[in-house]
């Protein structure tokens, strides 16, 4: 059972985190998460004792924040469906199909990915699916009669060979016609025209029946038939031939682009070697269950997430992380689906079903990224709806008005109008732009960067402020001892020894850092141990009373200390009421942090750090990285408030927040673009962020921005190319200079060039 509640009056992100932790520990609660920004609690319960569990949840929430009002939220579970539109290559038709499908009752959202020929749907009730599916098939048939709607991917044989035969045969008859005169020549022209363009004519007739007049098949048919009528038979045939060849080349280019993008995302495993008794059985990864044992041989992909129970190897993780260095793994290590085993044989116990695996989530997010469309895409889709009718109207005016006013023959003006009809199809724009953005998302994925929508990729071009969390983002999040200072002639090793013994039973990261530095502990020496929350540790080691903690603890016990030590987190040590020394601990700055900050500043981006750390630690990191500004001592809710203040200063640009994806979820969600760092294996991070950097390299922010810049450049190159050539041809056609050859180039030729240009994005 899944339940959601609205927590009215929730104002403390730190309190929300405490509530979430305690609720998760309740018996019967499978999972719980609090969205601080939206003030909602979502819980998954695997028991029928709902009333008892709810009482416990209410008790926990009110014990932390007594003024909260808890109201249950009605959940209407949405279902996602994916259909394959086999043979769909017309982006203009795809936009029309998408628009009509969104209007079907029961469909909450619909988006067509022309690159993968997928229609991604969100519906509100499984019961209505068959009715929805039948309506979708009718809509698709209305716009594209030859496109088939499938619920699963199927291999389709192309008609390329048949198309080639008809083109060659039609061309031969066309050339042969020039050897004859009069009626025989005309018959050969007509025959070659029908052989070359029969499918264009057939589609035009079908579309007219379905009420689709202004599509490219109808326009091309009218233009060429009109050329026949006014006596331009050779040109009518040659234009249809050029158009058909161009369309074939365009389809090949689109298919090549699809393959290029699929190659970037080729991380879905094909099979799993399942242990059945003492034998191996090759099965579909979807058929493997949690707890099953699988074997991965050298050279094979890891098919599911799991834990190694036998063997060791080196894994290529580049498909998910973009990291070229191999990762060494041994028994007990976690491995993820999509990794490639480079050596040895691994026996793995499966921990997640394939549909819940990291690789499947990544694929679903990347393939569904086009649902969040960039402003440029939305603009071109709207533009395409008005562009064709306007050009057709201009063609009609050119055919009728000038010959009447100037008292000239209609034929030359009709010919010029026919050129307008050929140029009026907006496919070059509509297909190349989503293809460009999807290619950019694929290129980012290849580099270990998961972009959850083309709108976020486009927004990266307008960033003028970058806000960073400190721990785990700018720093490694791995504490180390920077220095040990001793007082009163005490040896430094003795200071470390007392601190290590006092911290032995603590799970705090600082305690673990000290214990790691010291080594083995003789537990028999620890007589007493007491943790003083917010201050430190009080312990009895041998016959000595030992205090280890912050300055507040020492002051509280009346112990005089020195505070003029190195910058860092200070752990003071006192024995039998006497101060003996201080351990300074630091969090190392990432190697690529300085380079990243420097490049951002060169790009005119203001760099700011938000941290919960003390002023001296924050100041030290900010100074080393030459940050423009920093704010310290902030709780999670205060980070949100500070970000909102900074948003007022950003002017017209975009603000990005870069954090670790879990602790910083509220502020990541609040930013224009939320980026989660080092999120491989972190489900919460992938859900919260708009962009996820799958490894721990902060420099990949620059990689993402460079890909965004290249994508924008190529997309706008395509827009300028298409509009310039089409407008130019229309202008010169108005003056009688252009012929239909130029018009066909302005249609399919430009579309072909735009598609080929879009493929460049996938190359890095």
Automatic annotation (TrEMBL):
GO terms for cellular component: plasma membrane. Its EC number is 7.2.2.21. It catalyses: Cd(2+)(in) + ATP + H2O = Cd(2+)(out) + ADP + phosphate + H(+). InterPro entries: ATPase_P-typ_cyto_dom_N, ATPase_P-typ_P_site, ATPase_P-typ_TM_dom_sf, ATPase_P-typ_transduc_dom_A_sf, ATPase_P-type_domA, Cation_Transport_ATPase_IB, HAD-like_sf, HAD_sf. GO terms for molecular function: ATP binding; ATP hydrolysis activity; metal ion binding; P-type cadmium transporter activity. It is an enzyme of class 7 (translocase). Pfam families: E1-E2_ATPase, HMA, Hydrolase. It is found in: Cell membrane; Membrane. It comes from the Bacteria. Keywords: ATP-binding, Cadmium, Cell membrane, Hydrolase, Membrane, Metal-binding, Nucleotide-binding, Translocase, Transmembrane, Transmembrane helix. Gene3D superfamilies: 3.30.70.100, Calcium-transporting ATPase, cytoplasmic domain N, Calcium-transporting ATPase, cytoplasmic transduction domain A, HAD superfamily/HAD-like. It is a multi-pass membrane protein. Belongs to the cation transport ATPase (P-type) (TC 3.A.3) family. Type IB subfamily. This is Cd(2+)-exporting ATPase. It comes from Caloramator australicus RC3.
């Amino acid at each position: 059972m899944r339940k959601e509640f609205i927590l009215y009056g929730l104002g403390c992100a730190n309190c929300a985190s405490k509530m979430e932790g305690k609720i998760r520990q309740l018996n019967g609660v499978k999972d719980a998460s609090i969205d601080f920004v939206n003030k909602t609690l979502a819980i998954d319960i695997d028991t029928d004792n709902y009333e008892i569990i709810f009482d416990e949840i209410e008790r926990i929430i009110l014990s932390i924040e007594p003024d909260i009002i808890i109201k249950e939220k009605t959940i209407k579970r949405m279902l996602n469906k994916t259909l394959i539109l086999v043979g769909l290559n017309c982006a203009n038709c795809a936009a029309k199909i998408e628009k009509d499908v969104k209007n079907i009752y029961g469909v909450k959202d619909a988006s067509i990915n022309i690159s993968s020929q997928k229609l991604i749907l969100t519906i509100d009730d499984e019961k209505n699916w068959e009715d929805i599916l039948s309506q979708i098939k009718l809509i698709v048939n209305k716009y594209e009669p030859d496109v088939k709607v499938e619920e699963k991917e199927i291999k389709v044989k192309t008609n390329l060979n048949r198309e080639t035969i008809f083109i060659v045969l039609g061309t031969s008859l066309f050339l042969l016609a020039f050897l004859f005169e009069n009626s025989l020549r005309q018959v050969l022209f007509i025959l070659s025209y029908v052989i070359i363009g029969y499918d264009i004519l057939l589609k035009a007739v079908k579309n007219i029946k379905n009420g689709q007049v202004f599509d490219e098949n109808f326009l091309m048919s009218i233009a060429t038939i009109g050329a026949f009528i006014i006596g331009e038979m050779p040109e009518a045939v040659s234009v249809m031939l050029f158009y058909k060849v161009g369309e074939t080349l365009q389809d090949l280019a689109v298919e090549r682009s699809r393959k290029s993008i699929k190659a970037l995302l080729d991380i879905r495993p094909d099979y799993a070697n399942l242990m059945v008794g003492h034998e191996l059985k090759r099965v579909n990864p979807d058929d493997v269950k949690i707890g099953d044992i699988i074997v991965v041989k050298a050279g094979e992909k890891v098919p599911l997430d799991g834990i190694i129970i036998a063997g060791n190897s080196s894994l290529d993780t580049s498909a998910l992380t973009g990291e070229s260095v191999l990762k060494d793994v041994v028994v007990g290590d976690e491995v993820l689906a999509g990794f490639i085993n480079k050596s040895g044989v691994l026996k793995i116990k499966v921990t997640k079903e394939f549909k819940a695996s990291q690789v499947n989530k990544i694929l679903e997010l990347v393939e569904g990224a086009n649902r969040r469309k960039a402003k440029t895409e939305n603009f071109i889709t709207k533009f395409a709806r008005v562009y064709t009718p306007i050009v057709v109207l201009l063609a009609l005016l050119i055919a009728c008005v000038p010959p009447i006013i100037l008292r000239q023959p209609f034929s030359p003006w009709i010919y010029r109008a026919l050129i307008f009809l050929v140029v009026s199809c907006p496919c070059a724009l509509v297909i190349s732009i989503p293809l460009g953005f999807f290619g950019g998302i694929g290129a980012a994925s290849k580099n270990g960067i998961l972009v959850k929508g083309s709108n976020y990729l486009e927004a990266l071009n307008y960033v003028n402020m970058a806000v960073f969390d400190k721990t785990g983002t700018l720093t490694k999040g791995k504490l180390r001892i920077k220095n040990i200072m001793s007082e009163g002639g005490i040896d430094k090793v003795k200071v470390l020894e007392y601190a290590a013994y006092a911290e032995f039973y603590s799970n705090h990261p600082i305690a673990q850092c000290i214990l790691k530095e010291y080594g083995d502990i003789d537990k028999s020496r620890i007589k007493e141990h007491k943790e003083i929350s917010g201050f430190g540790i009080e312990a009895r080691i041998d016959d000595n009373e030992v205090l280890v903690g912050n300055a507040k603890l020492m002051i509280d016990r009346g112990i005089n200390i020195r505070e003029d030590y190195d910058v860092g987190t200070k752990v003071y040590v006192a024995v039998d009421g006497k101060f003996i020394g201080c351990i300074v601990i630091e969090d190392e700055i990432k190697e690529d942090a300085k380079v990243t900050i420097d490049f951002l500043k060169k790009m005119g981006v203001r760099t700011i750090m938000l941290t919960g750390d003390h002023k001296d630690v924050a100041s030290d990191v900010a100074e080393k990285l030459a940050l423009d500004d920093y704010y310290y001592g902030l709780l999670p809710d205060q980070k949100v408030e500070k970000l909102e203040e900074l948003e007022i200063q950003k002017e017209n640009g975009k603000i990005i927040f870069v954090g670790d994806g879990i602790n910083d979820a509220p502020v990541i969600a609040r930013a224009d673009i939320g980026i989660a760092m080092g999120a491989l294996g972190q489900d919460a991070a992938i859900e919260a962020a708009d962009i996820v950097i799958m490894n721990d390299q902060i420099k990949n922010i620059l990689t993402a921005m460079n890909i965004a810049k290249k994508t924008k450049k190529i997309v706008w190159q395509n827009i300028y190319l298409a509009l310039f050539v089409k407008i130019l041809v229309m202008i010169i056609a108005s003056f009688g200079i252009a012929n239909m050859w130029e018009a066909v180039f302005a249609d399919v030729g430009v579309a072909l060039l735009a598609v080929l240009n879009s493929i460049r994005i996938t190359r890095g």
